[in-house]
Design a protein that fits this description.
about 150 residues; alpha+beta; four-stranded mixed beta sheet
Length: about 150
Amino acid sequence: MRTARLRSVHPALWAGLAALAVGAALCVVGWYGMSGERFAERQLPYLASCTVPGAALIIAGAVLLTYGRNTLATSRVERLYELLVTADPAPDTLDPAPLAASSGRLLTMPGGTLWHRADCPLVEGKPRAVPADAGAIAEAGLVPCPICEPPNGS
């Protein structure tokens, strides 16, 4: 299981980790070389040959890690979307017959922007739900609920 996960890691992640490791090693070597020198003239070669490239590699590694993680996340989302689209349609868990057979009562919540069927899960069992008639719907500018899809005319 672990090897399958390691194979799926984007190459930019590996390159980023390698750049971070080499950059950190160069910074340590540069620091160690500079620490043994008393005069600035002798410290400059260590700074130029190890510390500056090491810092640049650390920055490049961080950029590669960010890019690799974004690419990996994007590929996972695309894969999940592909699985969702190509999956066999699941049996409807919501039977349209009870919705059609439900009472013609329409409800709304005070201060809400939608009107619902009485059996809509958004208002079902809520004591604050109030009946909505055509006048109240038009007056308040309410729109039909996208979940229960009440009839357009009340």
